[in-house]
Amino acid sequence: MRALKHGTMRAHVALALAALVLAGDALQPALAGGFDYKDALTKTIIFLEAQRSGKLPPNNRVKWRGDSGLEDGKLANVDLTGGYYDAGDNVKYGLPLAFTVTTLAWTALAFKPELQSAKELDHVHEAIRWGTDYLLKCASRKKKLWVQVGDPNLDHQCWVRPENMKAPRTLYEIDEKTPGTEIAAETAAAFAASSMVFRHDKKYSRALLNKAKLLFLFAKSHQGSYDGECPFYCSYSGYNDELLWAATWLYLATKRQVYADFITHEAISSSVAEFSWDLKFPGAQVLLSEFNMTSGGGAQNFKTQADNFVCAVLPDTAFHQVFITPGGMIHLRDGANTQYVTGTSFLFIVYSDLLLRTGQSVMCGNQAVKPERLREFARQQMDYLLGANPRGSSYVVGFGANSPTQPHHRGASTPVLPPGYDVNCGLSFGEWFAPDRPNPNELTGAIMGGPDKDDRFVDKRANSSYTEPCTYINSLAIGPLAALAARGAQLVATH
Ligand SMILES: *[C@@H]1O[C@H](CO)[C@@H](O)[C@H](O)[C@H]1NC(C)=O
Ligand SMILES: *[C@@H]1O[C@H](CO)[C@@H](O)[C@H](O)[C@H]1NC(C)=O
What we know:
Elements: H1 10-18, H2 28-31, H3 37-50, E1 92-93, H4 94-110, H5 112-117, H6 121-138, E2 144-149, H7 152-155, E3 171-175, H8 181-197, H9 202-221, H10 240-254, H11 257-266, H12 281-288, E4 294-295, E5 300-301, H13 302-313, H14 338-357, E6 362-364, E7 367-369, H15 371-386, H16 410-413, H17 425-433, H18 464-467, H19 471-487
Antiparallel strand pairs: 1-2, 2-3, 4-5, 6-7
Helix pairs in contact: 3-19, 4-6, 4-8, 4-19, 6-8, 8-9, 8-10, 9-10, 10-11, 10-12, 12-13, 14-15, 14-19
The structure holds 2-acetamido-2-deoxy-beta-D-glucopyranose (2 copies).
């Protein structure tokens, strides 16, 4: 029942044209402000605990969740328990899972003081480790990576919570014969970034970094696009972005020249208007803008490309491409659209911090855009999700005004059943999916896919493009919310 989480690359073209219909965010300040960012922060992290697969620890805060997927890996005689369900179903997809971990690790690094002052740093570390422990199992064999557990088509024939699922836990892998550069490189990025987070735990950190190096080599030397998760997660953007992204994280983790050489001489980088689980160029560009390296054979430096991302998003530049709804929200395409909202907010705050530290502005042609403008835009985007929008409604479950009650999510919308209870899949949709009533279990902190391009939203679980949550929407919201909680609405850094 999952809708595709993305359109095709052709959608970008349509987008650029549609962007003529613009709305300033002049309307927003009147609506904005007064949000309890700390509460939103805490809740967005709790959502990740609702997505956990495997044997849950006693401190898991989502009381209606139990152990699940305890035999994952058995079909190949390996232990692949743990990790995360990505969204409203019970499949463990490797590509979005690894991206969730990479972005959580970046959050822990970039917003460490803010998370510390909110007493949430340990929770974020636990969230990362829940992912890396699983990914280490997936990468336990040489020249092989398990990339998915669960057959999505069979999974989708039953509306059942993961604790009671019956569909086969089919395993998917990549190896030398069937490569998958996107997923190998993204997993390398997740390991490299996490190795920096866990430096205080030398042994664990070294294990992560070793896997990162091996997987990057594997990704580079066995190139081939990975479509094994398509049509659920199709890589529309190819793998050049993941190779650059992985090399960037390896460079940051090791400062080794071999990665700098790859970045400057071999990697391909281009300017795009999107940062998502599929497309990571702007993330790498923001990270690399500090180092004055050039990309693509020296044509442009990464600062210019990071600037181009900002210029393509901001409505007040001559280069804007991204559609903004009348109520002021970034809208790229239906289907987890809020990932672009949280992802852009994340990059804007991280980039503004770097620009202020180095005394620079964003250059959009001749127009200089001050870092403060990036912060203001990021705050406005996050405020939209929290309730500063035409509906006056929150898009975060259990937070703020009129928050969603019907997230498209199997665990939240079905009753807690005894372990081993035999669910009738044929009847499950009529019993638990179709009825127009609130979910019995609150999916605390889940950010919905969000409203459409006219700021409309119908709180119905059948409408999955709008009501399905995803781990990577939330992973990218944690940093902005931590910054807002610690620094206040102006996002002025205190460190
Ligand atoms: C990058 O260039 C700027 C401006 O020329 C300079 O101040 C800075 O030190 C350079 N950074 C590095 C890492 O070389
Ligand atoms: C799904 O949501 C969209 C956007 O809010 C809305 O236009 C559409 O009518 C909804 N469909 C159903 C079946 O609720």
